[in-house]
Structure formats: C-alpha cells, structure tokens
Task: structure prediction
Amino acid sequence: MFKQNTRFIAVISLLLLVFATPVIAQENTPTASLLVGQRAVDILSAPNEAADVLGFAQNKVLRITGISANGLFYQVDFDGEVGWISQFVAADIEGDVANLMIIDVETTATDDSNDESSTTLPILTVKRRGSIREAPNSDAATIGEVQSGEQYTITAISPDERYYQIQSDDIEGWLSTIYVDEIEGDLSTISETETQPCFVRTDEVRTVQVRVGYGINRGVSTFLTADTDFEVQGQNMDGDDGIWYALLKEEAAPGKSIEGDVAWVAADDVEASGDCEAVPVIDATGIIPLPPLAAPETSDSEVETVETPDEASGPKTVIVSANAGWVDTGLFLMGGQSFSISATGRANIWPACWSACAENEFCNPEFYCAGATSHGPGGFATTPLEDAQPDVASRFPMPSGRFGALVGRIDGSGAFQIGTGGTFTASADGNLFLIHNDFLSAESIADNLGAFTVTVTVQE
Result:
C-alpha cells in the first residue's frame, strides 16, 4: 500500500511538471534588444550619467530588460549583470520597446552629490509682468502671469530661443524671453521644442499706419497693405508698454524713405498669428520723447523759461508747446536790433490726420499726415499754406509760411518764419512772441502734441 501511494504521488508530480512548463513559456513577456556599434559605450550601474561605470560594450547585442521611469535609459543584461545604457547612444533596436517594464529607481549618483550639473537647472528672474502660456506661441492659452522680480526654474527652451518652459511649485508653462531679466545657470543641457514664425496682417484698407520707428511719435510712412501676410522680424516696446512689430521695409513700405531695413506697426493695430511673443527684441530708433505740454491757450501765453542767464543779452531758452497760442519769450527787442534763434524738438499738430483724411475725398494723407503727425521746427509740406490751402490760410499765424513751422513776431507786427533758426532783425520795438504755424483756434490746437525748444540770443 505504501509503495502504491508513493508511486501515485510520483506520477502526479511528473504530470504537473510536464503540463506546467508550457504554461510558463506562453506568458507574453515583452522583449527587446539593442545593437551597440563600433563606438564603445559605457554601461552604467544606475540610470544616471553620473553613475558608476560597470564596463563598456562594443559591436555587441544586448538584451533590454526594462526602461527607466523618465524614459532616458534602458536596463540591459550586461554579461549576467544588470546595467544601464543611455537611449541616446543606442544604435539599432529590435523588439517591443513600447511595452517594456518601467523600472523606477534612484537616479542620483550617491558618490557624486556635489556635481551641480546633474542636479541643478537654470533659474530665470522676471523683468516685467507677462503671460505664461500653455505652449510656446502667442496663440496658446494664457494659464498664468509672472511679475517683476519673480524667479522660475527653466526646464526647456524653444529651438529659436524665444520661449522658456518654466516651472514652480504651482505652475508649469511657457514664457517669452522678452520678459526675462537675467538667467543663473547653464542652458546648454536644456531640451528644445519646435516654434512657428510670427505673421501679422490687416483686412482693412488704409487703416494700419506704418511708421519709421516704434512709438506714436514716429513719423508715418504709409498704410499697411490689406489682406497680405507680413513676417515679423523683431519687436520693441514704447514708453507706455505698447508692443511694436518690425517688418521688412521693402515689403511693408516699398519705396519709402526709411532709415534701416525695417518699418514698424503697432501690435494692437494688426491681427497676429504664430509665436509673436517669441519674436526677438531688436534695437531701433524708437519713440521720440516729447517735452511737457502746456495747457491749451487761446491768447498770448506766458513763457516757460528753461534757462535764464545773468546777462540780459545772453541766451535764453524757452519751450513752445504745440497746443499753446502765441508764447511771449519775455525778451524786449529794439527796432533794428539783431538776434539769433536755434530750435529743436518734434510736434504733432494733427493727431487725427489719418482718420480724418480717410473720410475726406479731398484730403491727401500722403501729402499731409506723415509730416503733420511728426515734424520739426522747419515744418512740412514745402508749398506755402496760401497756395496749398488758400481758403483757410488766412487763419494761420503766417499764411505764407510752411505748415507746422516755428514762426515769430514782435508784438503786433507781421509774422516771420524761423524754422530751425537763423539770425533776424527786429522790425519794431516790442517783445518777441513764438508759435507753431497751425490753424489758430482753441478747438484745433487743443489736441496737439509735442513742443519746440527754442534758444534766443540778443546781440548788443
């Protein structure tokens, strides 16, 4: 009986062994292998470039047994020992890599804790308020904001270096480089992502002004052609934090006299597409600061004295605002006395010129507006007012002068054109008055901008 039981148990054990073996063999375990070429590569003890080197492989096929949690290293069978190899040095790979076992292990080398390059990412400091976006382009959704002085870790960079992927405890997104003040750390190891160029356009005819520089105080050259895409070459910001885009001059303002290779449009005036926030900031002749404006005047106004020397006959500098009437310099001249004048500055005596001309078929904006919205003491439009606008010329301080030019008079005597300056002789006794040669009415000059700085020297 004992022998029969023993024989029965042995038979059952043999059957279990025979039938169990195929079941194990049929398990669907993903396998893969990689080929190391002629270039020798290090086999590491852990999935980290700073880990110990177990040896090297060359012209050899290695069996892949897993992949690191970050997807950057393969676990391999290295002559019966567990090793790791970077996916960047692996050559041909065969097999089911996508379904390999993910192995989560400590990736920081224990014997190289002082290696800052393996543990420290670059840190940026924010220059000014800006948007954090979901993707590295200006069309992406805004997911947060940065403020001046804040610091963030940089985890990625766009290929054109126009966006940084930033990370903090509570947010991760993309920030344009124009909002970055300084960077601490090494960007060379940061990964890159793809970005798209920036284009702008308008669907409106004779609406978007193309200027010679960035800022509303720069001269207008022409209108941006409608229904045409223009690639943005650069950007800059005016004194009111307004963004301006630089376009190729030959495309946006062909044939126009503009210094340099680019012309400018306001970002608020155009429709933009692509990574416009990532467009690099470029240097250019920007906004021309305007001197402080005096309150509108309808009669002779008091002079604003900038510099008054001790000598009565010495140079005297005054500000002649574009929105003032006749300005009394406070200098008394004798008939026949000589005096010299020099003048600088910029003025805009018709801010609404472009829109007004667009509604008036008799108005030529190319003739008036480029100069009216930005000109110096010499004025603009070489044709005298009495010839160009005979019906209204009599309502200007000097009908025979140039539109917008600096003109003067001695008390109630006739006006004379000064422009940028020269030497003059007083036609009568009296105080010297100065003014912009503009339509002289309270309504007309109230919205004028800018001023001329005028220096007068009286000869003894």
